[in-house]
Amino acid sequence: MGFFQQPVNGGTMATTEKLLQEEVSAAEAIMRVLEEMGIDMVFGIAGGNTGRFFHALYFHQSTIRTVLVRHESLAGVMAEVYGRLTGKPGVAIGQGAFMISNGLLGVVEAHLGSSPMLILTDLSDQSPFSQHAPYQSGTGEYGAWDAKQSFSGVTKLTMVPQEPVQAVQSVQLAMKHALSGEQGPVAVICHSAAFRGRVGPNSTPSLYPTRFYLPPKPAGDPALIEAAAKSLLKAKNPVILAGNGVRLSQAYKELQELSEILGAPVGTTAAGKGVFPETHELALGAFGNYGQATANAFIGQADWIFCVGTRLGPVDTARENPELIDPQRQDLIQVDIEPKNAGWSFPCEHRIIGDAAMVMSQLTAAIQKNGRPSVETLSTRKEVLKKLREEHHFFNVPAYGSEEVPILPERLIAEIHKAIADGAFIACDAGENRLFMTHLFQTKGAGTLIMPGIGAMGYSIPAAMAAKLIYPDRQVLAVCGDGGFGMSMNGLMTAFEENIPIGVVIFNNSALGWVKHGQGKRVIASDFKNMNYAEIAKAMGCQGIRVEEPGQISAALAEALKGERPTVVDVVTSLKSSFLDVTSPLAGP
Fold first, then answer.
1. Cβ proximity of 489 and 502 under 8 Å
2. Spatial separation of the C-alpha atoms in residues 562 and 556, rounded to whole Å
3. CB atoms within 10 A of CB 393
4. Which neighbouring-strand residues pair with 306?
């Protein structure tokens, strides 16, 4: 497929082939669009007119895996993580009323975390009775709820096609919009009339291949690249701050190359944690409210700060504490694919708009051309970082080796780090366990940590399932608290039924830890009854292991990481450790 050259009046003219060579249903044409995009799995549960999509998917089982979930929230998160890890829009399919009421966890995460995503849903309007009280109708007409208005608040774009051709083109434009600039979720809500009739080579408007709609990745302005490179070469203590945008761009190699050629240490935001391996000699770990003291100290003394793929929100900047980042004493360079993000929180000496991977590759080339830092300079920068690491106990706390019972979170996290392979994926949840993971867990491989940007409980299990489906040969662990597990344990049914052998590690302290510790002596509605989640897992067909002593952790994790079947490791943990223990003094009271 491609352009065909035909002579016209002595010259040539590009002729583009049509999307379809025969007439098919709109749902079938949409599945062909997904195939053309290389989307090899979708997530959802049928209802209303979305059954038409599933009927079409039946004929595409060799190219598209349809993953049935037990709840729309699972579909939303799995699609979001698919988009985050592959760079292709993750597809969630479900009935309109229930995608908006149940499925928004992943959609909001995609919207605020910039993951490309497509929600395929319907109005359930039963045309021509759209105004005669169909009980699930989302047309916004007399007596109906307004699906377009509802989805528009949490997506980049929402479209409501009412004809078959329009439905197909809406999906193609959704792909374009989901991938353009700052990526995000797009919803296509089909009117019942969009499923009637057929589309084909003679449809009006004409249907063309989807690739012609897709946006190119933008490079940075060469003049701005040159100026930024010269500025960085003048820096005495440069530092790189990397966010989730590095993950979305898959710019791990480019980030490491830029860091190494400059000798500039890399700190990450909480959402970007893991885009740079924290075992690397130039790693600072996460910075900000719950970051490493090493990271906050180094950033505070830097003279040039290179920010890539981060909006520099208040949690990352310790509420814009000038001891961490201060544009009056530090110069900032900010790189982002979205113009509104560059220079948003702080004034920047240089603002470069472009794809993170392309811009960092350009910068590395410009630095090499202008004369990279000397061996002596690189050695000095590494020595400064080494001393700061020793001073601030970089990923080295005594509680890692604790034998206390109940088990301290620090010990459990240290055991997870020891147990996993370098390429293992870790999907975090929300709550106090996530703060412990942000501060205490040292990532090994670049891009292997999946952290919910909006801090939503119930995220880790569906996120881990998506990662395991995409990378079946790699270890995958979901790490959650007992609160988050209670919200998404139905995901184990999907893991069992779809043969997705993830491991799940539960910090089981019988409480909403962050909430309870924040309440002080006035504890209310933050305690749970002591439950054995390993037994619940067994009842769902999964393997369950209860861990009550530190010496049991290693063997339990080894069993979960075998990848033979879904396995829950239910670890009874202590409430002795608190989020206050991992909160930076820079964050204030």
1. no
2. 10
3. 12
4. 240, 333
CB 480 within 8 A of CB 452: no
Q: Hunting for tokens 């603002």 — which residue is that?
A: 351
Fold of the 222-391 domain: Rossmann fold (3.40.50)
What architecture does CATH give domain 3-213?
A: 3-Layer(aba) Sandwich (3.40)
The 3-class secondary structure across 220-252, one letter per residue, is: CCHHHHHHHHHHHHHCCCEEEEECHHHHHHCCH
pLDDT tens-digit map of 247-293: 999 999 999 999 999 999 999 999 999 999 999 999 999 999 999 99
| Cβ-proximal residues to 87 (8 Å cutoff; 6+ apart), any chain | 116, 248, 250
- Per-residue tokens: 454: 């909006």
> Is residue 555's pLDDT more than 70?
yes
Distance CA 75, CA 466 (A): 9
Average the pLDDT over 284-306 and give the result.
97
Q: Please tell me the distance from the alpha carbon of residue 200 to that of residue 212, in angstroms, as a whole number.
A: 18
- Kindly state the percentage of the chain with pLDDT values over 90: 94
Report yes or no: 455 and 466 within 8 Å, Cβ to Cβ.
no
Q: Strands 238-242 and 266-268, how do they pair?
A: parallel
CA dihedral 37, 42, 47, 49 (to 10 degrees): 10
Tokens matching residue 54: 């599933």
Give residue 8's Cα distance to chain centre: 49
Check if the beta carbon of residue 472 is closer than 8 Å to that of residue 495. Answer: no
Cβ neighbours for 179, distance < 8 A, ≥ 6 positions apart? 89, 116, 214, 215
Q: Answer whether 206's CB lies under 8 Å from 18's CB.
A: yes
Estimate the crossing angle of helix 356-370 against helix 252-262, to 10 degrees. 30
Q: Which residue has 């302290």 as its token pair? A: 509
Runs of H (alpha helix) within 271-322: 293-301
Q: How far apart are CA 39 and CA 18, in angstroms?
A: 20
Q: What is the pTM of this model?
A: 0.95
Any residues with CB less than 8 A from the CB of 472 and at least 6 apart, and which? none
The domains of the chain are located at 3-213, 222-391, 398-586
HSE-CB of 2 using CA atoms within 13 angstroms: 1
Closest CA to 466 of 130, 2, 42: 42
Give CA–CA dist 405/548, Å, rounded. Answer: 7
H-type alpha helices, 283-408:
293-301, 356-370, 375-391
Q: How far apart are CA 183 and CA 576, in angstroms?
A: 41
Parallel, antiparallel or unpaired: strands 24-25 and 90-93: unpaired
Whether domain 398-586 has CATH 3.40.50.970: yes
Same fold? 3-213, 398-586:
yes
The end-to-end CA distance of the chain, in Å, is: 61
